[in-house]
Amino acid sequence: MRGASQGWRAGLIGLAFCFVPPALATEVRIATFEAVGDAIPAPLDGLAGDSTRGQKLVRDRETGNCLICHQAPVANEPFQGDLAPSLAGVGGRLSVGQLRLRLVDQSKLNPATLMPAYHRVDGLTRVAARYRNRPVFSAQEIEDVVAWLATLKE
Amino acid sequence: MRSALLALVVLMAGAIAATAETRTSARELLPPELQAQQADDDANPGMLWVTSGQQLWSMPAGANAKSCSECHGDATTSMRGIAARYPAIDAKSGRLMNLEQRINNCRTANMAAAALPYEGEDLLALTAYVAHQSRGLPVSVRIDNAAAPHFEAGRRFYFERQGQLNVSCSQCHDDNVGRRLRGDRISSGLPTAWPAYRLDWQKMGSLHRRLRACSLGVRAEQLDFGSPEYVNLELYLAGRADGHLVETPGLRK
What we know:
Chain A is mainly alpha-helical. Chain A contains four helices and no strands.
């Protein structure tokens, strides 16, 4: 596994930032984490996730918007994408730590992946001003989504 | 019978991975009734812009009170095949120009008229009218000599991951053609239908407006209408669409 021996902390350490427009200048920090194999075993910042909030983030078109690419067993979502593996049963296939790494930065496992990194700000190009230097998800939001994904056992 | 055949074509288009030889127009992925509507000039809403462009063609404008037709005559002959060769290098300035910019260049340089605002009704109408004269003809742009660096810049832009979501044009329009992004089926991203009428907009829009929507989709900077980056990208898209037939005015979701 590519990241295993390096334990890549990859410089993803708490960033202060400059170019976010004042209205959006919320403090969104990148959590420090350590990968072991293809997983991040410890919760980011030691936070506990809330699966109800997690499901909302997965559906929300302005934030996670996961269903633009994935299908998932949620009611009242007629338009789900099919660019990616279905999330049905993903909580049975993958451990919580494996889910966490795939959300934080899937490109660590597959550099050519289509899946966006949800908790990363470095190495991106031409990001629109309102999103610049902000990860898609905060550490808390990563934990919330991981908590919901872990409930998808079948 | 006809609709069964269309349905089959749609299914096949989804199953075949796009290669240089088999790129898929978004038209082929539309529901059969929308494909039929695009093909029917009496039902295609984009034809309203084409008709208004036809009127503007012979309307005098600017200090010299000249019209397009005074220099170019009957557009159905003089403009046939032109759009299929754009964007192109302007010999005088050495600049790469798309059709909108060429039209505005004629206005400012030859008619002493003000440039029409990009995405305004008049420029959309004139561009649609001129492009419509190439409907059914194969795209064939020059990508050599002075155009080569522009094509290369466009190619680089197309393959570069961008935006907060870090996705390249190619990851959608080469790797995932026929698949579903929410409710949309992804095409090969050909520029051949534009300007096109988009149901989502309830009006005609330029190719650059479509590109701005794709940029926003990956949370990347939306570049200005007519920006050099988008014109270079437009040249790359046209070069990549070599041999595909012009559709203007397209009908899109």
